[in-house]
Amino acid sequence: MFPQPNRGKSSLFSGFIPRSQKQRHYLLKGIFWQNKGKIKYLFFLSCLVISITNFYPASAHKVEVAGNVGGTFHIEPNDTPQAGEPAKAWFALTRRGGKVIPLAQCDCQLAVYAEPYAAGEPPLLEPQLEAVAAERYQGIPGANITFPKPGIYELQLNGKPISGARFKPFQFKFEVTVVGGSTQNTQNERDVNGNLVEGESQKLPIWAIALPIFGFIGILVVVLRSMRNGQ
After folding, report:
1. What is the pLDDT of residues 53-82, one digit of tens each?
2. What is the dihedral of CA 30, 36, 42, 48, to 10 degrees?
3. Is CB count within 10 Å lower at the N or C end of the chain?
4. DSSP-derived secondary structure letter, 192
């Protein structure tokens, strides 16, 4: 009698059950190439969803270099302060090689200008600097700044060495975008740059953050089911 084929279960290759290591290797390789397009599509969707969900809020430090001094700037919250509300700004100054320059060794002045401004124009604000601790930095220059209106501002930090410190005088310029504060009314007004903006704070709603996540989960379930049925 001839052996009867196994009708109870079906595999990717009908009637073929891999026994050796080599056979299992080719079987797995065949499954991978069969679903390669689906895997690439799933990977692309994952990257897309991650980039969307991480777009807001976004926090990134700004870095400038002048001579042998590097300056890292950050302002809370998330480098996007709100008009009419105090924002904490700090400047991590380092010499070439990574050694931190504390405020005690720097004669630093901070000036805030509203863009655009003319050369020689007096600053809009001159916040008082004080030594602060931020992240891994200790005693670096920092200040609380309250921007009067939404718009684009430029922060200028000028410094020169004191107390025998060895670094060259520097000037750093950092651009800051200020959004409408939550305490403003809903009427339209002009920002510091002369543009018409809405007074109320524009925040990303929760549903806009959750929608891509649920969409990704749904796509993942559909792709996995399709791959399982294909096998």
Report:
1. 443 344 468 899 999 999 999 998 888 899
2. 150
3. N
4. T
Closest CA relative to residue 73, chosen from 31, 112, 41, 43: 112
Residue 71 · residue 172 · CB < 8 Å = yes
Q: How many residues does the chain have?
A: 231
Structure tokens at 136: 């891994």
Nearest by Cα to 66 from 118, 101, 90, 112: 101
Mean pLDDT for the chain overall: 77
Beta-strand runs (E) in the chain = 62-66, 69-75, 86-95, 106-114, 130-134, 137-146, 151-161, 170-178, 188-190, 196-198
Enter the DSSP assignment of 103.
G
**pTM of the entire structure?**
0.58
